[in-house]
Design a protein that fits this description.
about 525 residues; about 60% helix; single chain; Helix Hairpins; Beta-Lactamase; five-stranded antiparallel beta sheet; alpha+beta; 13 helices
Length: about 525
């Protein structure tokens, strides 16, 4: 019978065109992925490193500018405190008043736009002489108690904490120096109130120096932001974080702020704008010079650098948005993603087109092989039918041959019997009678002889029929083997077709292409 091919579950295979598409896509994407990885893990850290180094240098530069400016002012205060007319006048020599006034006048005009006033005070803190206006009292003090104590022990110029005049939007510090006579006895104090607008200008320059979104802040030893980059200087308003403390103040600081009116507390009480990261850095003994963090007043990550002054207990922080630092890398990364998508689309399209061009001839051959396979199977079916019919004929012939042999054998037995009886009669003819009996018996013998001849002829025909049946049986066996070979060849051809179809991606693709 016709051999059936049982369908087994087939594994899902990608087509040849899809393999080509994937290969082209990989060839296009791998270099781009390498570029993306280099942007992410090489260029981005390099950019951040370069910018943080630049910020560190910028913070140092800004602090050095502030220190240079303050050093000049400190030297001026030191020089005035050592002026002879100042010493004579504060000890009671009224003839030295004009000389003392001239000393204050000259000092004021060395930086007239930034000095608020110059004052000469006695040891009790009372104002003896001032220019161009009387000094402002800080609470009930013209000379802060902690400054007075330090001045009695040291000849250095002391810089006070920051004060703020809300009316004039003016932030300033007092520079104190003691005045001693020729015997080095303390006879008074010099106080110069210095406006910090010059320092503000340095801090405000961060936007121009480091780009949009960058800013700087100057934090004193109490954790108060005493300078802050004004993003919109034209509006005349101070930045919101200015004069806000980064951590809750201690009880002692609260008392000092209230009693000395530090940071303009009487008009705008000192409030907390907490920034735990800055507070933590400020509290460390060896704080990092560069770092990354999210400032409390901002909503994104910043690269930052810090540098502390050796002249005043102030620390300068400069911050730059990481988005602007890595903007080039991000832009290149986005561009690379777009290129990857375009190349991937092009690779898939070219791969499918190329694969189709390659697989169509194979699919046509597969279709022809499949048709030949169907033809062979039909031929095998027909041969099986013929073989079945011939087998039936052989079987019927074999049954007829058996019957003939049976009757032939019966005739042979009967004729032998007749011949035997006839011979017996002939031998006893004298006893049986008349000559007629002899004649009859001769006839019987002749008939028996004839039957023997017929039987012999039948045996010859039987032999020929047997030979014919044997040859027919051999032919039938050959036809059966031929049909089996044709069926086996058709089965192998189907397997080859299946393998070719699996390689090129299936017959559906071919039929779709033909349509």
């Amino acid at each position: 019978m016709f051999q059936q091919i049982f369908a087994h579950p087939r594994k899902i295979h990608l087509s040849l065109s899809m393999y080509i598409s994937l290969l082209l896509a990989m060839m296009a994407i791998v270099p781009l992925l390498a570029t993306m990885l280099s942007l992410e893990f090489i260029l981005r850290p390099a950019l951040i490193g370069q910018v943080t180094n630049a910020l560190e240098k910028d913070s140092q530069t800004k602090v050095h500018l502030i220190e240079q400016y303050l050093i000049e002012r400190l030297n001026e205060v030191q020089a005035v405190s050592q002026s002879t007319p100042i010493k004579h006048f504060i000890t009671g020599d009224q003839t030295a008043r004009n000389g003392a006034f001239e000393a204050l006048f000259t000092a004021q005009h060395r930086d007239v736009s930034n000095y608020v006033s110059w004052s000469l005070l006695d040891t009790s803190g009372n104002v003896a002489l001032s220019y161009p206006s009387a000094p402002a009292a800080h609470g009930k003090y013209f000379v802060l108690p902690e400054a007075s104590q330090q001045l009695q022990k040291s000849g250095n110029v002391i810089i006070s904490d920051v004060f703020y005049d809300n009316t004039n939007n003016q932030e300033f510090v007092d520079l104190y120096a003691h005045v001693v006579d020729n015997s080095f006895h303390l006879v008074g104090f010099i106080r110069a109130s210095l406006d910090l607008r010059r320092i503000w200008a340095t801090v405000d320059s961060e936007t121009q120096d480091n780009g949009q979104g960058s800013y700087g802040t100057l934090i004193d030893e109490n954790g108060v932001r005493i300078a802050y980059t004004n993003i919109n200087p034209a509006n005349g308003l101070r930045p919101t974080p200015l004069l806000k403390i980064i951590a809750p103040p201690s009880a002692d600081l609260k008392q000092r702020v209230a009693s000395e009116n530090l940071y303009g507390n009487s008009d705008l009480p000192l409030t907390v704008l907490a920034d735990s990261k800055l507070a933590d850095i400020q509290s460390q003994q060896q704080p990092p010079s560069t770092f990354q963090f999210n400032p409390i007043e901002q909503n994104q990550a910043f690269a930052a650098a810090r540098y502390s002054s050796t002249i005043v207990p102030w620390t300068y922080f400069v911050m730059k948005p990481l988005s602007t630092v890595t903007g080039l890398a991000d832009q290149q990364l986005l561009t690379t993603w777009v290129i990857v998508f375009l190349f991937l689309s092009l690779a898939v399209f070219v791969g499918l087109w190329t694969g189709r061009r390659i697989t169509l001839p194979i699919l046509r051959s597969v279709d022809l092989l499949r048709k030949n396979s169907f033809t062979l199977k039909e031929l095998a079916n027909e041969e099986y039918q013929v073989v079945s019919e011939q087998a039936w004929m052989v079987e019927a012939s074999q049954m007829g041959l058996g019957s003939i042999r049976y009757y032939t054998n019966a005739n042979n037995v009967a004729s032998g019997y007749i011949a035997s009886v006839s011979m017996e009669l002939l031998r006893n003819s004298d006893h049986l009678g008349p000559p007629k009996l002899r004649e009859t018996m001769q006839y019987i013998v002749g008939s028996a002889t004839y039957i023997r001849k017929v039987v012999k002829h039948q045996e010859e025909m039987n032999n020929k029929l047997e030979t014919t049946l044997r040859v027919t049986d051999q032919i039938t066996n050959q036809l059966t083997k031929s049909a089996q070979s044709a069926d086996k060849a058709a089965t192998q051809m189907e397997q080859i077709v299946g393998q070719l179809t699996a390689v090129v991606g299936g017959q559906d693709e071919f039929h779709n292409s033909l349509q």
